[in-house]
Amino acid sequence: MRAYFLLLFPCSALAAGLSPHGLRCEYLETPLAVEDPHPRLSWTLEGGTAPQEQRAWAVRAATSLEKLLRNKADLWDSGETTSRATSQVEYRGKTPKSGQQVFWQVKIWDKDGAESEWSTPASWRSALTDPEQWVARWISARDETPLHTSRDTLYLPPAKYFRKEFEIAKPVRRATAYLSALGNAELRFNGKPASGAFFLPGWSDYHKRAYYRAFDVTALLKPGPNTFGAVLTDGWYSGYVGFGLLVGYGPHKTGRAMYGKTPSLLAQIEVEFEDGTRKLVGSDKTWKVSSDGPLLEADLLMGEKYDARREFAQWDRSGFNAAAWQNAIPAEANPSVKAPFSDNCGEREVDLGFRKPAKLQAYTGPGIKITEEIQPVKITEPKPGVYLFDFGTNFAGFVRLKAKGAAGDTLTLRYGEMLHPDGRLMTENLRKARATDTYVLKGAAEGEEWSPHFTYHGFQYCEVTGFKSPPTKENLTGLSLQANTPKTSSFECSDAVTNQLFKNIVRTQGANFLEIPTDCPQRDERLGWMGDAQIYIRSATYNADVASFFTKWLDDVEESQRSVGAYPDYAPYPMGHGEQGKTFGTAWMDAGIICPHTLWKVYGDTRVIERHWASMSRFMEFRQASSPSFNGVSIGNAWGDWLNLKDPTPMELIDSAYFAHTAQLMAEMAEATGRILEAAQYRQTFEDVRKAFADKYITAEGTLLKASQTACVLALQFDLVPQGNRAALGKQLVRLVEANQNRMSTGFLGTKSILPALTSIGKQSLAVRLFQSREFPSWGYPVVNGATSVWERWDSYTKENSFGGDNNAAMNSFSHYSFGAVCQWMFQSLAGIDTDGPGYQKILLKPIKPFSGSEGAPEPLTWVKASYASPTGTIKVEWRLDKTQYNYSVEIPPNTTATLHLPTRALDTVSVNDSPMETAKGVKFLQFEDGLSVCELQPGAYRFQTHFGL
């Protein structure tokens, strides 16, 4: 067969003049509370004539924008600094004062010495590190209600409304509001929200650490009287959390009040006037509070109930009559509340009264926002007066309701992911999560509009009862909630099912990446399961910029670490009431090593290694102590290859594999941070575990004694067998797949790596066949059965058993990203985009070698087009197979180099951008490797033309 490389997208030279754009501090745009006095700065490069790179940079920083633009850098003037770095650049200027805003710019020099203009200014604001700047005190409403003790009824207290009026007598230069809470809160000024973010301030182990958030509210203030308002709800602090109610965890086994009984608020505003003076207004006992407002119920799992007839007209504006409101009290003034607290280790007495968090910390995550409005595609009426709105896709969030009716008319909204065959809403898989919102109309003649603020649901369908006449699609709009993580990927190919699968993966990631990486967004769980996170994190990095998201969550992980060193099954760990995580298991606890390593490899972030090194070292000490002979052990929860299809893998083998893997990752991270001795020690640990694994599990023929598909995959991917045995082990894996009718039997652990394992042993055709299969079990099976998200189980639904068979309502999520970890292979092998070393400074381009199609595949792949906005810039690739033609194009961002593995050995027939390869600009042939031509590429856009046999 002969093939030709053709132009797939324009290959014109990049625009003249390399310049910096997209300035960020600690991965965020204009953060308003940065605790580190030496934060990391980053930018991306645009323009320039290919091939081009940054030779040097200069950063200047000032205390005001005016000074910065007048070149009076009174905080830092780095001068010309020879470096190609465009990220992880540490600020080395004067330490900013507490709460000070820092304005900064960068300019660069290219390799030819051409100097750019200064970038558009950016800024960050330092955190409130001076205790005297905190005038706010923890306040609460007086709470004399008895502690809820029943598992048979729900306790859903009303929201607390707080207000405080203050005067603005002078022109305002800038105003910054700060908010923390034990619970979830919303901040308001003069009738408007301070932010579009949700579930503030964020989830943590509140006994150890509470987050605070900062908001620029300058535009919300006005001369004269102003009003500071806040709405406070239970949130994760005292609401229902996880499966606590289902299994009987928490105070009196009720599943709520895991951290404490009564929510508390900490809030203040700092107003800077044009004359240089300041004014601070903070929460204290002079604030007014009421629980008689319209928000009667507000719970993350159970939903909201809002009675519009009870609205306080303009309660968050000046002039409101708050005579009926009570004075707030210091949070510590509420009484001590002793109660029996149950978890999986037994029962003990705890105090659910106020406990001041040991640390108040600026929030490091990206926050949660509404990212999309989704219109219904269909309305059905399965029963008279029961209306089902189908939004056409599974997402996390809630709806915006528009309705008109009489005062007291009540609309009840229930949410679900699937429908029963008779058209009824399926809610059995929600378990104890009520997932119901209720709105009581006030009777406004012009109609009413409402959406929840303190709950969210995972759903495709919303069932509404209470409409007096048939509704229209305009009555409901879906509002998708996600973490504010910028999207970074695109992927499309010749296979429509694969394209839908990619959309499903991205949608499922968004639905589960809100505050933490949750397992599911719909049922009574929504926990930060560690195994799921470590399986999926590399895929997540392709689809979104998740650096700050995982930076925040890894603090939760360390905070939940057991005293013996093990990481828990999930983090945060609410079931412990401030104690360390008690449940743990192999491959789940290893996320504490795998996730920091992934952030380093993708983003070049060594600070995350430094931040958690002591914690990670304690974990490895625990691993060593648990397995002194370097053989794996069955310890903790035996999750293992979770949800495999009757092809279990011994826990001891899995434990050995992950012991070796984490030792290898620790060696790499130690070397990256200059820990040479530790690197050598961890390499030796890896070799010791590898030898013990071989002695116990590998036969003289090089195969595994206790073989499962997952066992073979782990041994191959974690480098547990000598090089000479890889071929035999690879053949064993292929035999196991073929014996299973060319189908997978893997669970969470094996599925992540089965396609990379097959690809690594030269079985790309089998890998693609498994990937493209539409038969059960496969990634395609849910898609052809209507899935708009990734399902938790291979058999979440089957044509034969519907939701029955081995499935049950106890665990059947239809939005669960773990099996979506195949996205990593889609980018690294189908598209061929990877990093060659940390941070994408060097790029690896190794698309799967094309072939005429997989036997049994309904639509053999004939083209793939993908892009990835890496930390160093956007990478674009496209290849196409059309009978005898194979086409490949690539675009590489400035300031990088790429190694391309081109599927041909016929170099004399290769042309690049219409020139012979040997004279092509920016291309250097390196060597032949495994039948591929390996080339080095400089920045730019390339097209290749060649003749070769496939």
Q: What topology emerges from the helices and strands here?
A:
Layout: E1 19-25, E2 40-46, E3 54-62, H1 65-69, E4 76-77, E5 81-82, E6 89-90, E7 101-110, E8 122-125, E9 139-140, E10 160-168, E11 172-182, E12 184-189, E13 192-193, E14 210-216, E15 224-233, H2 235-238, H3 244-247, E16 250-251, E17 264-273, E18 278-282, E19 288-290, E20 295-299, E21 303-307, E22 326-327, E23 329-330, E24 338-343, E25 346-351, E26 360-362, E27 368-374, E28 378-383, E29 386-403, E30 410-416, E31 418-419, E32 425-426, E33 436-440, E34 448-450, E35 457-465, E36 476-483, E37 489-493, H4 496-512, H5 530-543, H6 547-559, H7 591-603, H8 607-626, H9 651-672, H10 676-697, H11 709-717, H12 726-739, H13 748-760, H14 764-772, H15 780-784, H16 822-831, E38 833-835, E39 842-845, E40 863-870, E41 873-882, E42 885-892, E43 897-902, E44 911-912, E45 915-916, E46 923-929, E47 932-937, E48 940-945
Parallel strand pairs: 14-26, 21-33, 39-43
Antiparallel strand pairs: 1-2, 2-6, 3-4, 3-5, 3-7, 7-8, 9-23, 10-15, 10-19, 11-14, 11-17, 12-13, 12-15, 16-24, 17-18, 19-22, 20-21, 24-25, 27-36, 28-29, 29-34, 29-35, 29-36, 30-33, 30-35, 31-32, 37-40, 38-39, 40-41, 41-42, 42-48, 43-47, 44-45, 44-48, 46-47
Helix pairs in contact: 5-7, 5-16, 6-7, 7-8, 7-9, 8-9, 9-10, 11-12, 11-13, 13-14, 13-16
